[in-house]
Amino acid sequence: QVQLVESGGGLVQAGGSLRLSCAASGPTASDSAMAWFRQAPGKEREFVAAINWSGGRTYYSDSVKGRFTISRDNAKNTVYLQMNSLKPEDTAVYFCAASGRLSASSRRDDYGYWGQGTQVTVSS
Question: Cys-Cys link to 65, which of 57, 60, 75, 104 (CB 3.0-4.6 A)?
Answer without folding.
Answer: 60
